[in-house]
Amino acid sequence: MIRRIHHAAIICSDYDASKAFYTNTLGFRVIEETYREERDSFKLDLAVGEDGQIELFSFPDPPPRPTGPEARGLRHLAFSTSDLDGAVEELAAKGVPCEPVRVDELTGRRFTFFRDPDDLPLELYED
């Protein structure tokens, strides 16, 4: 019935800053950008790797995220990488700090977290 996750949707507070972060900093390719005048809202479809997508939305005055990653709802987004150290170095060179690299106690895989312009937790997971 379900084959895979198609996309994740993110609502940002500063569309230009988030667009620059996801396209320039993370390198996601723009599929399509749409302005919806009736909502005063942009929708930016971004390609993540071969199969994934992110829909980046802007809305006037969206409410902030209630708390950190322990709030109900989406906890974080995780992106896979084959070179965690290289990805961490590349983000640092672009001014994006990462938490110290940890090892997943269940899988033995290395991972770290960083934040987008709206403080959304994003994970890099080495596979």
Characterize the structure shown.
- The structure is a single chain.
- Strands 1-4-3-2 form a four-stranded mixed β-sheet, with helices on one face. It has a four-stranded mixed β-sheet with strand order 5-8-7-6, covered by helices on one side.
- Strand 3 and strand 4 form a beta hairpin.
- 17% of the residues lie in helices and 38% in strands.
- It has two domains: 62 residues, Roll (2,3-Dihydroxybiphenyl 1,2-Dioxygenase, domain 1), CATH 3.10.180.10; 53 residues, Roll (2,3-Dihydroxybiphenyl 1,2-Dioxygenase, domain 1).
- It has 127 residues and is of the alpha/beta class.
- Average pLDDT over all residues: 91
State the domain count.
2
Q: How much strand content do the residues show?
A: 35-45%
Largest sheet: 4 strands, mixed
Q: Reading side by side through the largest sheet, how are the strands ordered?
A: 1-4-3-2
Describe this structure in a few short sentences:
With 127 residues, the protein is an alpha/beta fold. It has two domains: 1-62, 2,3-Dihydroxybiphenyl 1,2-Dioxygenase, domain 1; 75-127, 2,3-Dihydroxybiphenyl 1,2-Dioxygenase, domain 1 (Roll), CATH 3.10.180.
Question: Which tags fit this structure?
Answer:
127 residues; alpha/beta; 2,3-Dihydroxybiphenyl 1,2-Dioxygenase, domain 1; 2 domains; four-stranded mixed β-sheet; 2 helices; 8 strands; 17% helix; globular
Summarize the topology.
Elements: E1 7-12, H1 15-25, E2 29-36, E3 41-48, E4 52-58, E5 77-81, H2 84-93, E6 102-103, E7 110-115, E8 121-126
Parallel strand pairs: 1-4, 5-8
Antiparallel strand pairs: 2-3, 3-4, 6-7, 7-8
Keywords: Metal-binding
Organism: Metabacillus mangrovi
Protein name: VOC family protein
